[in-house]
Specification:
The chain has about 80 residues and is an all-alpha fold. The protein contains 4 helices and no strands. The protein is globular.
């Protein structure tokens, strides 16, 4: 049995579908959850996929810590 990916785990935590993770209140709930996940639990490519999906960015980070920094910064930005 394959383990769940980062975004699937986040959707399960939020009790929602993956497609709902980008929406305002859910996004505000899921990002703090992601920030508490140990850096070594998921590979960097999954963190970069999460950035692309949640923030709509094509930017790839060179470390999980950098990806988490971008996620944290997004919480301080107003939602469009």
């Amino acid at each position: 049995m394959a383990s769940m990916g980062l975004l699937d785990t986040a959707a399960e935590f939020c009790g929602t579908y993956l497609s709902e993770l980008r929406r305002g209140a859910t996004r505000q709930q899921v990002i703090p959850y992601l920030l508490q996940i140990p850096d070594d639990r998921y590979p960097l490519d999954e963190w970069n996929d999460a950035l692309a999906y949640l923030l709509g960015t094509a930017e790839s980070c060179s470390s999980v810590a950098a990806a988490k920094d971008l996620l944290a910064a997004s919480l301080r930005q107003p939602l469009c």
